[in-house]
Amino acid sequence: MAIVKIFRQRIFIFSIFFVGIYFGYYWRFTLTTDTKNLLAEQRYTNVGTSVKHCQPKTNIFFMKTHKTAGTTVQNVLLRYANTHELVVGLPATADPRFNYPSGEFFNRTFVRKSEKPINMLCHHMRFHAKEVKAILPDDTFYVTIIREAGSLFESMFDYFHYNCKAFARTPLKSWAIDEFLSQPNR
């Protein structure tokens, strides 16, 4: 089955990933101080140019998307904002999705009023560039996560199975996605 093949490929990729983490962790502690300093110096120097410096961003827009590890990234960003005393734009209502489920595009009125300028937005929304730019500073860094379409569909099929009428027409079994794809208009 196609799903079993995909599952095996993912297990292989994760195995390679974790082996890489293990050896990276191991080598980090076995390098001499001189080698570590040399590697650090090379990392920050381009050939024929001066040393580059990375500056932290304080104004960030994260376009949160479904089933792309967006909640994990959002959690990291919220902790970063908390640590650095940044102002996060929060919804004016109790719903943390800026009216996303209603189908409305983002509007600046969806954000709770703040005495200080807003530094960060990182919740689900239907993006409207003009409205987002109206409440964030000009130097805002915009970022999102894009996932490979096939694995995204497979994940969404399982996650939204009973909340989506089209998906719910097939029983949630290991072969359900194959059945759905063979007759999507059923």
UniProtKB/TrEMBL annotation:
Primary localisation category: Golgi
Bilayer topology term: Single-pass type II membrane protein
Keyword Transmembrane helix (UniProt): yes
InterPro entries: Gal-3-0_sulfotransfrase (IPR009729), P-loop_NTPase (IPR027417)
Presence of the UniProt keyword Membrane in the record: yes
Molecular function via GO: galactosylceramide sulfotransferase activity
Location in or out of the cell: Golgi apparatus membrane
Transmembrane segments: 12-29
Pfam families according to UniProt: Gal-3-0_sulfotr
Alphabetic keyword roster: Glycoprotein, Golgi apparatus, Membrane, Signal-anchor, Transferase, Transmembrane, Transmembrane helix
GO cellular component: a single term: Golgi membrane
GO annotation terms (biological process): glycolipid biosynthetic process
Superkingdom per UniProt: Eukaryota
Family affiliation: Belongs to the galactose-3-O-sulfotransferase family.
Name recorded for this polypeptide: Sulfotransferase
Organism, as annotated: Ciona savignyi
